[in-house]
Queue: 4 jobs
Job 1
Amino acid sequence: MCATCPALLLCGLYATEVRPSSGIWAGRTPVQVAQLDRFVDLSQQVA
């Protein structure tokens, strides 16, 4: 369902800002959102 949602990108960006504790955000669980957020933070520090 999320793969075809027109708000997928915005939803994912929102989730990385808000860090939800429940639900599905851009096709990811809150744990996966937190892991993605850590990856993005690390890549920005290296670049």
Job 2
Amino acid sequence: MLATKSQTIPRFWWPKRDQISDLGQEHKDQIHSIFVKQGITDGIKTWEQCEPIVTEVFKLSKYFAAPIFHKMKVFYDIIDRSSISKRDAMMAPTPVPITEMMVIGWASRKIQPEDPTLSFYSVVKKDHNDWIEKEDFDIFLHAILMTHPGLDFLLETQDRKDTGRIHLQSPLLSLGEFDDMKMIRDYFSYEHFYVIYCTFWELDSDHDFLLDKDDLLKYDGHALSRRTVDRIFSEVTWKFTSAVPGKMGYEDFIHFLLNDQDQITDRSIEFWFNIFDLDADGVVRDHELKYFYEEQVQRMECLNYETIAFHDVLCQLHDMIGPRVTGEFRLADFKRKRKFAGSFFSIFTSLNKFMAFENRDPFQAKQEQMENPNCTAWHRWCADQYLRLAMEEGEDMDEGGVRRDVGLIAFMSQGWIRCGLKKPEKPGMSSAIFCQELMDSKGGRAAVRAPCAAKFARHFVTSSCDLGAMPCNL
């Protein structure tokens, strides 16, 4: 029987695009003009000479200049093909100059100046592949590390480790416009990376870049229950990439951390739903919730906290989520009420978040959300942790033996961009002096040593305000 009402299904497939055509005469003339302008007669010898061609003709990021120059050398067998993955050789001059015709020959069938995204895809992938693999980005990321002024300090670090669909063309172009890495936040934030890496490093007691169950139990001040950690290490939600049985690698930890601190996303909701769905029947029922809650009660009793009956908790959460079928929580129910899904899961998995939920001030939370609507739970957590790490590493002794909060000064004077908002300006005053005056006016070091230190910093890095605007109760 035919349906009485037709439904339009959005298009989900497009035919494969035609092969990239040769460079047009206009772009060949541009390449010739760049050779003439630089006074190059025998050919390009360094990647710096290649940069104008990459940015002006190819319409790609200037940080593609060194990798493209490296790929040209390999393409013409100037260096061995196996060296395509040897990043240290990428910045070296070519022993055989690359002529104008060689540049045009390499760019043909690879570069489409009218479509930079297609050019990006063709340049990054291997010539024999029709897809981009993870390792294809290696030399491009290394080029950013070697040439971006905002990452100079990383060049002296000896313990560096290489570690859905996204669009990288635009962010890479934006990198060329800013020397401060914190200005580009589309897919990467150095501050977020710093927080993630330091959090992992603190848990990894033997520093083998692998976490076992005991390591993860230390996360967030031993907040996670043993049963939760056991379920995570059962790999029921996703298979670990560490390839070591019973061990979680750095990438696996990032996957867990994002799911734990950003609990309104589909990825996070699906992650925690699978943790709770013990029998894998697509429904979370009361006996499955009770399995996790029993350990929470035991932990609260050990700490002399007042416990709450499971039935009372279940009634409260039932009203919060409002499942379609009474007593049966399905994935669709959590996605429909995603705002409360994180609180639901945290009550059974994290003692810290459970206690924070019980003692929450709904009016304060609502006010903070209204003041900073673009600041997600993930950004707030990263800001809090970055402040903590900055204070721990920046505390020092001055000449008089008095401790000074260098870390907080550096954090607030250099990292004002938060959630898309800018630092408050005060004419004739540097950021560092502004921060110091701010601290002195509100009680100096005592204010930032207090438990409200994170709120103190967040108020000024997410708001446009002056010295007098700081809440007096901080």
Job 3
Amino acid sequence: MSWARGNSKTAASDAQESELEAQNDSHLNELHSKLQALRGVTTDIYRDSQGQNSLLDNTSNSFDQFKTSLSNTSTRFARSVQSGKGNARTQLGIVGGVVLLFFLYKLFGGGSSVPSPPQGVEGSGRL
């Protein structure tokens, strides 16, 4: 009788152990899929950061080129004003006029970005 009792315990124990093994395998599979998803996200973040770094480098290079071009233009303008060739007052007047027109345009013409309310809409302030 004691042998049968011990045998039934081992059968139940084997069944419980088998069930625990199946649960462990299931949890390991879930963990594996989560790790794969995390790896995909990490790869996407890396690629995005590389793209942003490249964009920043290109922007920096563009601004450096613009700075150099503006500096060269300013130097040439100063040289032409100092040399006296081509009436410096006329050149300065043209540049000043363009700047003045730009500011007037921004102040009166192009600076208004507030849209007017649609016609015939209730609550537009009309009585």
Job 4
Amino acid sequence: MAPPPSMPAASDRAGPGRDAGDSSSLRLRRAPSADAGDLAGDSSVGLRENGEPQPPTNPPPQEQQQQHEMLYYRASAPAHRRVKESPLSSDAIFRQSHAGLLNLCIVVLIAVNSRLIIENLMKYGLLIRAGFWFSARSLGDWPLLMCCLTLPVFPLVALMAEKLITRKLIGEHVVILLHIIITTSAIVYPVVVTLKCDSAVLSGFVLMFLASIMWMKLVSYAHTNYDIRVLSKSTEKGAAYGNYVDPENMKDPTFKSLVYFMLAPTLCYQPTYPQTTCIRKGWVTQQLIKCVVFTGLMGFIIEQYINPIVKNSKHPLKGNFLNAIERVLKLSVPTLYVWLCMFYCFFHLWLNIVAELLCFGDREFYKDWWNAKTVEEVRCLLKLSSFLLK
């Protein structure tokens, strides 16, 4: 006698060549997806009282999930279903997430550096001196202050040279010679003033830092304007550059464009820059607080770690060679921390603050240089290649 329509035959569920008694055990050994299909198949067949086909009745999703768990965690369910590699094997290690190991390394790094900080404080005490950074002598460094205030004269002279060549009052060779004199004077003048005056470390560093930035900006300013003149002459002669030449970046230099370029966080001059629409004052305040904190941390590392090691070190040619190597290796860790703090404060915090205040749009001041394999890649990822190419 055939089974009723709502109860499929055991041989149909078990497959050909198997009896009804084996079907339940086989179903328990299947994967959850296969079990779901069997359960759905058992409830999808039936007829109404009037003889019409009955629509499939699937159990609720919560009930299906409970059935899957009951079948999947049975003792007879297979635990090994496919070929798999160990997570740390050479074939699978790069396909795994190492966030846990990274967190462990951070914890170990914090623990080790905390021990070194406590050990240093117990040995030397608090060594931070305000006189190393700021002193009465710094306020009396009026020659350096006057030199810093007179640095904007060089960009103004460069603008005058560009105006003269635009009006065709001087030749191309004359303006090139003027730019060479201007850029050379912009870097030599602060060096002479710094050497002549016995100033504090911070005053001399700030002056030379600003002078170096201005020198690089003046070099880019001269090169870009020269190239604009060459492109303009080529365009007038009928040369076609297609979409490579932007009319907005072919304008003559103006006082407004020069001032914006000297203040903008970039070393590459162009007449116009992409800009944002507003200034986020709250965001600027947060970045300023971070900049102050990391600058203080950098000063703490220099005063508390680097200075004592340098003072207690002998001359490398007069002492033991192994002792010199030990001192260099001891300096490597705090020097690395100072370098990282300096990078974060300047390239990320300070440049973003200036860009936000000036609505400067292109804020990709650096790329992932920490993934670089060579020094050349580091230079490119720090966005120095753009200036060198110009």
